[in-house]
Amino acid sequence: MNNKGQTLVVFVIILPIILFVLALVIDLGLFSIEKRKVDNNTKDVLKYYVDNIDEDNIDTKVNNLLNSNLSNINITLDKENMKLTVEKKYDGIFDILYDSKISITYTYKNNKIIKG
Q1: Three-state DSSP state, 56
Q2: For residue 53, which phi and psi values (nearest 5 degrees)?
Q3: What's the pTM?
Q4: Residue 84: exposed, middle, or buried by beta-carbon count in 10 A (0-12, 13-18, 19+)?
Q5: Would you state the pLDDT for residue 1?
Q6: Beta partners for 86?
Q7: How many whole angstroms separate alpha carbon 74 and alpha carbon 87?
Q8: Alpha carbons within 13 A on the beta-carbon side of 56
Q9: Which of the two residues, 12 and 116, has the higher pLDDT score?
């Protein structure tokens, strides 16, 4: 008996599933990279903000720094609590399957930068 036709049919049925899982893994990896990029930039800009809080137009400088490194973000700067929140919508291929909104908040308290 010749099983070549059966193997081809099984391969054709399984190939789309393998490609879907591969694309999902790549998309989640790119989402993770983008989240880390937002996280690092938010922390760095808050450090800059704390070090240079007495400068003129510090809010504008903070916005410019974040917008130069990240695109399509919403920035919330709370001077009273020394809190910086950056939100970004990630546009991935499978963003319907997972929460694709990146929201990072850092607070400066007791000479430490605290996430959350």
Answers
A1: coil
A2: -65, -25
A3: 0.80
A4: buried
A5: 60
A6: 75, 104
A7: 5
A8: 0
A9: 12
